[in-house]
What we know:
Blueprint: H1 4-19, H2 24-31, H3 35-43, H4 50-60, H5 91-102, H6 105-121
Helix pairs in contact: 1-3, 2-3
Amino acid sequence: MAHPVDVHVGKRIRHRRWLVGMTQQQLAEQVGIKFQQIQKYETGANRVSASRLWDISEALDVPVSFFFEGLDTAPEAAQGDAVPADLMGDKEALDLVRSYYAIPENQRRRLFDLARVLSDVA
Length: 122
């Protein structure tokens, strides 16, 4: 059975890889391993060593601490929110975030303001 920390780190690897639009194969090539190993990391089936996590953080252009963000957040804290607990595990949500950041900054700000107004009304 996978340790919850390994599962969390794997989800964060997948999350960041999706956000930057990188395939498992591309990440594996940059890190110097086979894509099957990336699959195992992302599911938490295999633990990521410290040195490998360092390589992955370099390839994905994030600090190593990125992979541990949100780890101390209890799942109960998300109850009652309209946002699912595993938002970044949702491919649709990640696609939306990636698309959002592809919009030019001035238009993105206007879209953000519109979304806030609409959510306040709801």
